[in-house]
Structure formats: C-alpha cells, structure tokens
C-alpha cells in the first residue's frame, strides 16, 4: 500500500461522507491532528535545525539542473555526438556533463551494513518525566526541562538491504540521542537477550544465520541447517532462540515492539556511586505480532510492510510513543543473583529488578531523504555521555570495538561529520584529515599540549568525561566465569511465562524452522535440546519434524516472570488508533452502514480503506450510475490482500452481497482474515456472506437487531442507523455495532479462534 497523500484517510473520509455531519467531525479531527503534528514538529528542535544547512528543497521553482561543479546544464537527455540529418554518429568522450552523470550513478551504492542492512528510521524527541539523579548525573537522564532530539532506526538483522520486512528475525532498535553533552547511542534490539556471551563469537553466529556459503540460500531466514547447527553447538544461545521462535520475532509493526539496550551499562552519580543499568522502551500501543502465515505471505505481497506502516502513522500525525525505563542494580549487589548480571544471554527478571519508567520517546517526523539519513546514520555502542559508563559485559566490550570499525569500511573515517551523525554540541579536537574531511579548522597547531594553550581538555566541572575508577583484579586467560556456564534456567523461565497460545506459536515456529533443515543431525539434536527446556515441547516438535523423540526429560523449575508474555502489554484503554481496516463493497452496497462505520472508525483514529470490486466508482443501492458520483475505492480486491489490514468490514446491500458471494477473491479475503484471527464485521445481507465463507457451526451470527460477537466475528443482521452507532468507548460488549466491532479490532487478534482450532477449519 503506497503512502502518498491521495490515500490520506482523513481526506478520504471527507470525500466519502460529503455533506454529512461526519465530514464536519472528521474535518475538525483532521485539522486537530495536523495542528498537533505541526506543533510537535516545531519542537523537533536542535537536530532538525542543524540539518537545515545541509538540506536543499528540490521543488524550489528557481532550481535549474547543474553539474556538481555548479554549471547550469541545457540538456541532460542526449549525449554529445556527431550526427547528420539522416545518420546517428559516434558519441564524444569530451561530454563531461554526461560522463559526470554516469560516474555518479555508477558509484551510488556503498557497502550495505554487514548486519541489520534492512531498516527504516524516523526523527523524534526524548523527554524525562522523572529525574534519575539518585543514580546518574547524565543531563539527559536528570533534566526534566529538556527535549532531546533523537533519530531511531529499526531493522531486521539477517536480510540484505532489499529483503522483506516481515521475516522471522530479531529487530534492531537503535536510538541516537543528540544530547547537549554529545551523542548517546542505545543500539538495542526488540528482544532483551542475545545469542552469544562473548563478542568474539559474533562473526560465527552471523555467518551461521546468513545465507549458506555454497549457494547463498536462504535469504533473510533462520530456517536452515547452519543456523540450527549453531544453536545446538552453542547452548548459550538457548534462551535467545526461544525468543526468536516466539511472536516477538514477527512484529505487527515497528511501533508495537519493545526496545532493549540488552547489554549492561553503568550509571554514575554526583556521589561517585556506580550502578549497573539496563535500558528498556515499551510501546504505548502494546506489543503485537503478525501471525506466521500472514508474515510469510506479506514477505511476498508487501515486502515494505513495516517501512510503510511507520511512514504512514507519522504522516497521519499518529506519532508512536514508548515509555523509557531503567533497571538498576547497585554496584554492591552485583554478585547477589544466581545469574551473572553482565551476561547478555540473561534478563534481569522484573520481580528481582523492577523497571523504573522515567521518560518517553516519541517519533514525529519522517526523514527527508533515505540515503543521507537512514542509510548513512551510524551507531556506536561506545557513544556514551558523562554519567553513563560501560560494564565488563564481554559482549558490550567487543561491540564497542566493532561498530566504529565497521563504520570506517561503510562510510569512511570521517563518518561522524556526516550531517545525520554529527552532534548538536560543539566538536573540537586534534583528529584531522582522512578521506572526505569536511571540517576546516583554523589555527596554527593541531596537537595538545601546545604553546597557545588552545583547546585544553575539559575539567570535570566543565562537563569533562571522567572514567569510574573500577578496581580490577584477576588472571589473564581465555575463560568464562562460573555463572556464565548455566544456559537453561532462563530459557525455561521464558517458556513457562508465555500464555498457552504463545507457547503453541513457539512449537509451531520450531516445527516450521526445523522442517526446513534437511540434515537429521541438526533436527535430531535440536529436539534433544528442547527437552532441556520443556519435555512436552520437545515431543511435539520431534513428532512434527520427524526427529528422534527425546527420552530424557530435564527438570523444569516451573518459575515464571512478568513482562515476558506479550499479552501483558495490552493498552489499559483499548484503542484502534492506526489500525488498518478494509471495507469491502460492490455495486448496490448499503451506503448507510458503509458511511456510518467508515466515519466511526476514522473518528477513533483507525485507518479505513475502501476496497471495491474495481477502483473506478462503486454505486450504492438506489444510486443511479448516470447521475451519482459513487464512491471511488482506494483499491480493488485483486490489488490488495487481507494480510495488509488488521480487520475487514462488509456492509450489506442485496446486490453487492450477491456479487461478492460469487467472487472467489472476496470469499478468500474473508476466509483469510478469519484464519489470521482478525476481527470481522458484517451487517445486513453481509452476515450471510460471512456465514457462507466461514462455513462453521461453532460461529454464532446475528439474526435480528442484536449485535453478536462470536470469536471476534461481529454481526448485526437488521440494520437501522441507531444500531450502528459511533465509537465513544471501546469496551467489551459495547453499546452498539460500531463499539462492539471496534472493541474486537482493539484486541488485535482473536486468540480463542486459534485455541479452539477454528482457524484451521477454513481453507485460506
Ligand atoms: C547485544 C547484542 C547486540 C545488539 C542488541 C545489536 C544491535 C545492533 C543494531 C540495532 C544494529 C543496527 C544499527 C543501525 O540501525 O544502523 C547493529 C548493527 C551492527 N552490529 Fe550489532 N548488535 C549486537 C551485537 C553485536 C556484536 C557482538 C557485534 C560485533 C562484535 C555487532 C556488530 C554489529 C555491526 C558490525 C553492525 C553494523 C553497523 C553498521 O554498519 O552501521 N553487534 N547491531
């Protein structure tokens, strides 16, 4: 689905509901949203202003095409050549204009990131609502009056730059905070742990996950022998692979994922006390995922699904927000836990170390150009500011080396001068020269100390970074400490803490992945490894993938932890904001139901899209084609698929339903949405269409004026306008059809449908 202005849902509402109260209402709403967006846009502040000096407006009417050396060009379509009236002649090398154009094109690509190559980003703001001065003196974590500009890049890990968004993978969550004291980068993921404990293993885990060396297959997937071979050979990866087999690895949207710094950092306060810390971002919209079949299909049907989703939400003024939290452990308690708090394969369970939410991150502006911003942004875990420090986490220490190093090969040594990467505070030092140096530093010396006393180091009081004097005693050797050798407790904790439906998804994901492994050594061993986590799980998966069923069961401690199941993150107030809803119509549709539900959805900030049997106007029951304008759908049934929407609604109308019931694609839309556990709404004659499409005794349908919600299929047979209603509050068994249907959408997916096996009874 493209995100151009012509698909602006507020505009569409206005067009479609012309002349009704709805248009006035949505016009006000649209105006409010736009003003709000503008207001917030204004406060984007320092970084956007900083970028302004490097930003040109392509659409300025005074622009003329020039060469890179500034000469205006009169023709960029024909290479200079020797021609005659009737004869095409040789092309001349002398044409420097044309040669420049081709040169520049030939060198447009830079090396893609060795990992996390596929990504999308946005600008935003970070604000604090509680000072953390008891544990740190970092300005960004103590000054509540600040608005810190941020640039956040989301990514997948394994795929190439052009790979699909919805594959099963970890998602990157890399935040650059342009603070007054310098850039602070939190280079995190949407999963709180990692595959390995020591950074020196990173090339191995990535080689194993990337396409196999002999044929470069498969792209952007972990469903292959090498990935699972690695998982078995490295028991330390057990906890992490359980997360990647859960729904966390197939997010519905970047806006609906948590972000975790993963590594253990430290905080230092004015009393010179040190605390260990982990950073966490939790989304306001809840943590939601796709279902696997949907993710697989979207990878082909709309490979840019997440990219467009983020762009669309920000363009519509529905700015995604995350609460920012810290988990803090005083230095004196470092060894009080049964796991090592410096081990990145472990979480700090919230029961032991509660999350303290102290701030908020909002994304409110799309980039102006992808390459100089999203592609050239470069993060470093080593970028910290005073008040924040490293720990001896061996993964973090290696990362601190790796990121700077990789930026040199991707962008060159002067990468920190690129507009998107440069800080908003002054930068001055004696680093000089190198390819593509931009800064011109006036002065007679470029070293310290110098006879002019120029550019001295800063005192602590002036904001100079002072390293914490950590006492270190030990033996130099290649070894992991004792606690680093336990790998199964938290893998069990993770699995035990999932809801039954999420556990079912883990079993299905493992069964899918191992089915793609054709080496029995790989899947037999993996089935055994699963027995170390949960015996039933190992049996189920072994049976599905044809592995030897493990005989030995390991003890499972039975403990659970909060904050692991995604279902715990449902928003306190149900919302359908930014949910994409397809309204399916054919000629003869019921315009009353269509208009009412379209407007009700838009008023609750959902995004209704009209899907017709064609994209030229569709006429309502009673409308005359010769005189009425009809409704121009956003798309037609063949152009889109149900996978691209969170829900579908079908208004009645005898003629419309008669034609849809003979349309295989329309029936497929309904069945697929049902199979993918999405809310389905139907009114009037459409109730019978949904009944016919699903063909299932267990579903109950409305047969009169009552609204019936059966497994998230919400129907109203006898439609009168009062029965359709507006959405005032989304609560279960809402007062009218719009509210009941809206509530079903707000639940994201109807898990009961899957728990009771209904989704497997329809063909889609
Ligand atoms: C806690 C574990 C890790 C997390 C959460 C993590 C996260 C990330 C993220 C989010 C990115 C993408 C940044 C962007 O959007 O531009 C990234 C890129 C990268 N990571 Fe990691 N990573 C981890 C471990 C490692 C380790 C252990 C290494 C190497 C020793 C490593 C090396 C890289 C490299 C080379 C890139 C590409 C950077 C670029 O070209 O801009 N990562 N990582």
From TrEMBL:
Gene3D superfamilies: 1.20.1370.20, 3.40.50.880, Catalase core domain. It comes from the Eukaryota. GO terms for biological process: hydrogen peroxide catabolic process; response to oxidative stress. It catalyses: 2 H2O2 = O2 + 2 H2O. Keywords: Heme, Hydrogen peroxide, Iron, Metal-binding, Oxidoreductase, Peroxidase. The keyword Oxidoreductase applies. GO terms for cellular component: cytosol. Heme binds at residue 403. This is Catalase.
